[in-house]
Design brief:
- The complex is a heterodimer of chains A (575) and B (535).
- By secondary structure, chain A is an alpha/beta fold.
- Chain A has 16 helices and 17 strands.
- In chain A, strand 7, helix 8 and strand 8 form a beta-alpha-beta unit.
- In chain A, helix 6 crosses helix 8.
- The C terminus of chain A is likely disordered.
- Chain B is α+β, with helices and mostly antiparallel strands and 535 residues long.
- Chain B has 2 domains: 254 residues, GroEL-like equatorial domain (GROEL, domain 1), CATH 1.10.560; 159 residues, GroEL, CATH 3.50.7.10.
- Chain B has 19 helices and 19 strands.
- In chain B, the strands form 6 sheets. In chain B, strands 7, 8, 9, 10, 11, 12 and 13 form a 7-stranded mixed β-sheet that branches.
- In chain B, helix 5 packs parallel to helix 18 and helix 6 packs across helix 14.
- The chains are: A alpha/beta (575), B alpha+beta (535).
Chain lengths: 575, 535
């Protein structure tokens, strides 16, 4: 087994992460549930890759994500930083052992748990009671019964923190809040302010310390899955942490998702803010990319109107909605990392195509072009294998979640790593692994554009839709994620109550389609930061960057562009 | 007002309003922290929205917990926190002093005085006070064997403001001994060489000094010993795990056998490294019953652990980077980055190594070392906030002792310095100043009294009585401080109440600078604030 350690830095990253862990929790639950679909019983996935087993002081066994999450103070809502598993009786803890004098207590108004969290809490209490008394707890639970539809509705209308829809227990080392920043969260929006607030470096050290706790336990770490909200002041912290990872765990690769919420790409009103935003994007991207093995920018400015949400109905204003779509894709990408490798010839009938992070990095960024910026594509839900899967439509269904990329680029040197899971075959039954493989290969055979290399992973297990998943499916999606030919009348958007699971396809792609993304960043770095009399020259100086540092960044970006641009030109010449 | 022409949405506060905004912010912050000061201060318990408890009496910690939004308050808070970063203490005093300077100035400004004149007076008073501080300080000769008593007194003074007396006194010895342990002649003291480790323990509040090191992890192999005596310690930074190096990452093998061969070859390299360590162990441990412990900064994978365990070696992986340094200082030897030329000289020594398990947490104690230059303060507490509070106090205590050693001086505490400096300013400096700047000097002098006043207030005493009693004694030439139990003057020298010289100097230095800046603000502009609001 090769363990993965996950990091989530920044508020939107935690929204994505919260959904991500909900999926994992759902998978764990379904595997044990005797009434669930048999496809969830044999997942051929090793959850230990993402989770750790532990034990509380009382000797209770725990199973928690191997995760370090960082967010601003107060962003955890009603969840305690220590989680609930390891909590000891809190009545005794309010005694003060260290001071004999006066005490003043300031109690913040407790955050109200929403209906969903309340019902989770009650369920747990009931479980405890049944464990304690053995019998006769059923009567009590009826009283507090909350209807699922009410919970879903309360989530739809009232998600404020990422903890509001989380059903996962976290380890006390996992959740870390940054305190003492003294900035308005709204203004924590650029590299400079983040760097300034973190200048003492203690926060970075604390995060590395917690990371070490999880890494020390790993017998054989395969790498880090790092989700960072790079739209604001969290980038410098992420850079700090990445630096310490590079130092301490030299051989463990980092797969970095730079995610952005919908609000962060809103056009700022004043010129000054526009310059600051552009410079931030450029600086943050070049800093982050220089410290990881593979960076995947995720987050469209308007997800709801993009092609990726053809079958979805997303409200762009809600991070709760957008993060769900991104998290589902990240979940799919992470599946091959946890498949049990069986050897080159023997394939399980449930999953095939296991890779590790370093292998994915090798596939996408290690060969000829060494392009380490990958594009994330998703088909959510992926259509069934009959009919329109064949031919052009395969690529037509996988739509990018990476912003600012070129469409319809013919790149003969592109490299891909694809995962299809839970695909439905003809007649609504699950397609077998080999069926999926054949179809995809056939699709590429017939396709006009074909990547130079494509690694395919297939799993039978679809994406389960947990209760707290938002209602973001359009009315063409059926109960098992099949695409209907006629819309369901009545409800414009469907959620976890109507849809139990969906098939997914996702892909990481290294292609010259990323060029506009890189060029935009290089362009704004040059025009706003480096050029003579640039409007942001003063600003970046305040952020603590000397001119030659900026020039180094520019050079790095133009090198990235050159490797992509040049090669593709050369190859097209030779044709 | 010209800003209005440029940006009609800008909010402008005119001169007096701007000034009062600053003064009110400073006073507000002062009010919040005022009750903390001194051994009779109030401890604050903050309960968050999710029920998380924070417990603190430390100005620095409290400031960081507060979500301050007012720009003036942020400026003061930053100064105070910087004070803590530099000198390790005095956060509360800085905030109080700035607040009091603003409060005193307010009186004069309301009477129509220009802030510039006050600021000039502050500058004169500041310089004079710093000179006075030089005269007033009590030199301490450090030499090779520092005077332990005086260090203890300084540490006790700090600790008693953070913890109840018995606990503070217990910690005093620990703190002083640990600083003396890591102190090396002719080198600055690096407090990071004191590891502060904590354990959650249900009913126990206890702190002890471990001469040696406590690591927060244990060996990861069931067959390794949990306790060993007479150990050689190998401190290393060598990867003992098989990781596919990138170049050979398994993609372009033409067949499975080739891949297997490659894997085996790489595995062998790791095994070789392990073998070299085992060879060294056999060399130094053969014929005696000594043990061998490897503490590695990099990973050790299960096959390597197996090999080591079979050879009777205890191995810990992924040690903290700082612990590598500490280990060498505590046990001797050197940290090795390669196993190629291992010699017995690289090894350190510890009389006892044992593991302690609490739930899923493991601790490894490396004790009974020879001549340590690094040590661990082990804090036990029933819950996180208690531990955090003791940790804060320990850190302050360590800083106070370090400052004393480095300053080679201390200042009489319990408010004695503040009263003395005030008398000096009023009786001597003020006369030498011409014109209205005198009033600035006076405001400064009165502001100094905030420390004894607050001490008195927190002890439930009448501030006027106390100040009169204290200044009376000082006028007669007796340097006295406040006895917070009786309200009577006391001799801080006799009672052993000493503060840090560098802390005081820093407060005197930075307080007036910030206060002056705030006083000289005559317009506050919030450009385009309204534009951000959604319409």
């Amino acid at each position: 087994m090769r363990e993965l350690v996950t990091l989530q830095v920044g508020s939107f990253a935690n929204f994505v992460g919260s959904h991500f862990w909900n999926f994992q929790d759902e998978l764990l639950g379904l595997a044990e549930d005797p009434n669930s679909d048999p496809v969830f019983k044999n997942q051929s996935l090793n959850m230990d890759v993402l989770y750790r087993s532990g034990e509380t002081h009382q000797g209770t066994v725990t199973y928690t994500p191997r995760l370090v999450s960082v967010d601003l103070q107060g962003s955890l809502g009603s969840m305690s930083t220590r989680g609930t598993l390891y909590d000891e009786n809190s009545s005794a803890s309010s005694n003060i052992y260290t001071w004999g004098g006066n005490v003043t207590t300031q109690v913040a108004e407790p955050h109200k748990k929403n209906l969903f969290l309340q019902s989770l809490y009650e369920e747990e209490q009931v479980n405890l009671l049944t464990l304690g008394n053995g019998v006769n707890a059923g009567g009590k639970s009826c009283r507090g019964e909350i209807h699922d539809s009410d919970k879903v509705e309360s989530l739809e209308n009232g998600v404020q923190y990422w903890t509001d829809f989380s059903k996962v227990h976290y380890h006390p080392q996992s959740l870390y809040e940054l305190s003492g920043l003294w900035v308005d969260p709204q203004k924590f929006d650029n590299y400079g302010i983040g760097r300034e607030s973190l200048s003492a470096g203690l926060q970075g050290e604390e995060v590395s310390e917690r990371l070490r706790f999880f890494v020390e336990e790993c017998d054989h770490i395969q790498g880090f899955q790092f989700i960072v909200d790079d739209s604001g002041g969290f980038s410098p912290l992420a850079v700090d942490v990445l630096e310490s990872i590079a130092d301490e765990y030299t051989n463990a690769p980092v797969l970095l998702y730079a995610v952005r919420g919908p609000g962060s790409s809103m056009d700022p009103r004043s010129q000054k803010q526009r310059v600051s935003r552009k410079l931030h994007d450029a600086v943050s991207f070049s800093k982050l990319s220089s410290l990881c093995k593979l960076i995947v920018p995720v987050g469209l400015p308007s997800l709801s109107t993009s092609k990726a949400s053809r079958f979805l109905s997303i409200n762009d204003k809600k991070p709760y909605h957008c993060s769900a779509a991104y998290a589902a894709t990240l979940h799919s990408i992470s599946l091959p990392f946890r498949m049990e490798p069986l050897g080159p010839t023997a394939d399980s009938s449930y999953a095939s195509g296991a890779v590790t992070i370093s292998e994915v990095v090798q596939i996408l960024a290690g060969q000829a072009r060494q392009n380490m910026v990958a594009i994330l594509d998703a088909a959510m839900p992926s259509p069934s294998l009959t009919g329109n899967w064949v031919g052009q439509n395969l690529t037509g269904n996988l739509q990018p979640l990476t912003p600012e990329i070129a469409e319809d680029v013919e790149d003969l040197q592109s490299l891909e790593s694809m995962i299809v899971h839970g695909a439905l075959g003809s007649g609504g039954h699950r397609a077998s692994i080999s069926e999926v493989k054949d179809t995809v290969h056939a699709a590429y055979e017939h396709g006009i554009t074909r990547p130079m290399f494509c690694h395919l992973s297939v799993a039978q297990c679809p994406l389960p839709i947990p209760l707290p998943f938002p209602s973001i499916f359009g009315n063409l999606v059926g109960q098992h994620g099949e695409l209907l030919s006629t819309p369901i009348v009545g409800s414009p958007s469907r959620g976890s109550l109507d849809i139990h699971s969906i098939p997914m396809a996702a892909r990481l792609r290294s292609s010259s389609a990323i060029l506009p993304f890189l060029e935009n960043r290089l362009g704004s770095l040059r025009s706003c930061g480096i050029a003579r009399g640039a409007p942001g020259a003063e600003l970046v100086r305040n952020w603590g960057f000397a001119k030659d540092e900026l020039e180094d960044m520019g050079e790095m970006l133009s090198k990235m562009i050159a490797t992509l641009g040049l090669r593709s030109e050369m190859s097209s010449d030779s044709d | 007002m010209s800003i209005r022409v440029l940006n009609p949405n800008a909010e402008v506060l005119n001169k007096s309003a701007a000034l009062h905004m600053n003064i009110n912010a400073a006073k507000g912050l002062q009010d919040v922290l005022k009750t903390n000061l001194g051994p009779k201060g109030t401890i604050k318990m903050l309960v968050g929205g999710a029920g998380d408890i924070k417990l603190s009496k430390d100005g620095n910690t409290l400031l960081k917990e507060m979500q301050i939004q007012n720009p003036t308050a942020i400026m003061i808070a930053r100064t105070a926190v910087a004070q803590d970063d530099i000198s390790g203490d005095g956060t509360t005093s800085t905030v109080l002093f700035i607040g009091e300077l603003m409060k005193q100035s307010e009186r004069y400004i309301d009477e129509g005085m220009h802030p510039r004149v006050l600021v000039d007076g502050f500058e004169i008073a500041k310089r004079a006070t710093l000179q006075f501080l030089e005269k007033f300080k009590t030199p301490v000769v450090m030499g090779d064997e520092p005077d332990k008593e005086i260090l203890k007194m300084v540490a006790r003074t700090t600790l008693r403001t953070k913890l109840y007396e018995a606990l503070a006194d217990q910690l005093t010895d620990i703190v002083v001994n640990s600083v003396l342990c890591i102190r090396k002649p002719e080198e600055p003291i690096d407090l990071f060489m004191v590891e502060i480790m904590h354990m959650r323990h249900k009913f126990d509040v206890d702190t002890r000094l471990v001469e040696g090191l406590v690591l927060d992890h244990g060996s990861r192999h069931p067959d390794m010993k949990r306790r060993a005596e007479n150990c050689f310690i190998l401190t290393s930074n060598v990867s003992l795990e098989y990781d596919k190096s990138e170049v050979n990452s398994g993609f372009f093998y033409s067949n499975a056998e080739q891949r297997e061969a490659m894997v085996l070859a790489e595995r062998r390299q790791v095994d070789e490294r392990v073998k070299k360590i085992i060879d060294l162990k056999n060399k130094v441990c053969s014929g005696n019953d000594n043990n061998f412990v490897v503490i590695n900064q990099k990973g050790i994978d299960p096959p390597s652990l197996d090999l080591l365990a079979r050879a009777g070696i205890i191995a810990l992986r992924r040690a903290k980077r700082r612990n590598m340094e500490r280990l060498v200082l505590a046990c001797g030897g050197e940290a090795v980055n390669s196993v190629d030329d291992l010699t017995p000289d690289c090894l350190g020594w510890a009389g006892l190594v044992y593991e302690h398990v609490l739930g899923e947490e493991k601790y490894t104690f490396v004790e009974n070392v020879k001549n340590p230059h690094s040590c661990t303060i082990l804090i036990k507490g029933p819950n996180d906030h208690t531990i955090a509070q003791i940790k804060d106090a320990v850190r302050d205590g360590l800083r106070a002792v370090k400052n004393t050693v480095e300053d080679e001086a201390v200042i009489l505490g319990a408010g004695a310095f503040e009263v003395a400096a005030r008398q000096y300013l009023v009786n001597e400096v003020k006369k030498t100043v011409k014109g209205r700047a005198q009033l600035g000097v006076e405001a400064f002098a009165d502001a100094l009294l905030v420390v004894p006043k607050t001490l008195a207030e927190n002890s439930g005493l009448d501030t006027q009585d106390v100040i009169i009693a204290l200044t009376g004694e000082h006028d007669q030439g007796n340097v006295v401080g406040l006895n917070h139990n009786t309200g009577e003057p006391l001799d801080p020298q006799m009672e052993g109440i000493f503060d840090n010289y560098s802390v005081k100097r820093q407060i005197i230095n930075s307080g007036p600078v910030i206060a002056s800046q705030l006083l000289l603000v005559d317009e506050v502009i919030r450009a385009g604030r309204n534009m951000r609001k959604p319409t």
